[in-house]
Target: ABC transporter domain-containing protein
Amino acid sequence: MRAEEPAGTAGAEAVLDMRGVGVALGQGRRRRTVLHDVTLRIEPGRTMGLIGSSGSGKTTAGRIALGLLRPDTGTVTVSGMPYSRFRREHAGKVQAVLQSPQWSFNPRRRLGDSITEPLGVVARTPHGPGRIDREARRELCLTMLRQVGLDPAHAGRYPHELSGGQRQRAAIARALITGPEFVVFDEAVSALDVAVQQKVLRLIRQLQETHGFGALFISHDLAATRIASDRIAVMLAGEIVEEGSPADVLDNPGHPYTRRLLETL
Ligand SMILES: Nc1ncnc2c1ncn2[C@@H]1O[C@H](COP(=O)(O)OP(=O)(O)OP(=O)(O)O)[C@@H](O)[C@H]1O
Model:
């Protein structure tokens, strides 16, 4: 693994620090190790791309990074805190954008209600803003719609009335409305055609500059990962076999698996 720090961020507190993480999944005789000794460190405002063939463990790593799955071994901290404490004190500060927002949006709710839904959770945490009244929620929703390039009128629409790209923008608005420190994008642009993908990727980069969140960008799409990422980690059978800058990993791969992956993906 290439371990050099990205320029200018050495020593910054990581938004996500996974160290030596291992996990086995499945029951009884079908139980098997899915992740082995995975170490990932993501700085504020930076994106770590995670690539690997199907079944290599990327989504499982993402679920651990989101605190949805507890590892059997190793440690995970978010902004220096273990997950249990972070979630209690800072709900909404870790968010996810997944592949198919038509499944994650309630088809019978207007987008404005879905986008502002995470604010309810944040309001109830110790460091949260308290109850956010209807007018303030509406204002925040409009701000987010504007930031992701949607029209205020979209707040009143239903998910099926939007294109795939617009729905993905709405999913990003919902993820960012709580001001997350860390966002997992799991195949977030994979369902979009290439031209829309490029626009959404540029949008994510712009928003990262404004909001400063760190990100884990899980994808099997190398072109998208190159645009999205400051660093790229390569996963093979639950292990990170290589990590480096996009140019290092994609143009000058050090591991034979990465070279094979570049030929096949
Ligand atoms: N709940 C589970 N129980 C048993 N095995 C599981 C479970 N979840 C995932 N796995 C197995 O763990 C391995 C890694 O799965 P994971 O979804 O993390 O891979 P991936 O790299 O994200 O794949 P893809 O690119 O196809 O989404 C796979 O072999 C999968 O079958």
Remarks:
- Residues 1-9 have pLDDT under 50 and may be disordered.
- The pocket of adenosine-5'-triphosphate is lined by residues 25-26, 34, 52, 54-60, 220 (CB under 6 Å).
- Strands lie at 16-25, 32-42, 47-51, 73-78, 81-82, 94-97, 182-186, 214-218, 231-236, 239-244.
